[in-house]
Sequence to fold (154 residues):
Amino acid sequence: MKPRYKRAAIALGIVSAVGIAAALILNAFNSNLVFFYTPTQVANHEAPQGRSFRVGGLVEAGSVKRDGVTVRFTVTDTAKTMTVRYEGILPDLFKEGKGVVAQGQLASDGEFVAREVLAKHDENYMPPEAAEALRRSAGAKPQAASTLVSGGAR
Fold:
């Protein structure tokens, strides 16, 4: 084999290896992406079916129901609400009327089955996605949103 063909074969092999590695990395990255949706977006069928995503908003007052380790509660963005089911121990900061983000999947019956529940960490913090969603949906209810969203982290 001529040296010119050897160099071309080596270059082709390197380009192929880099292409395969890039494809594998992008595939792994895409399968681990978790997007955030509000209850309004879920109600409008913008959330993926059969894929994990995050839903966030405020825990509706009086909606927390406990049955052993299974907890059901309602999350609202002041426009729409949705039921969340979680099996496990909730964070200490989880309270009615406070911000929450749950990660999981939408069940066939429309209930969100959470694998993880995150609660806000202090009085002035709300996840940026949840705060922005509340601001957007508060057009019809401006006084409710101003009391619920304090402006983000300081």
Q: What stands out?
A: Confidence is low (pLDDT under 50) at residues 142-154. The two ends are 67 Å apart (CA to CA).
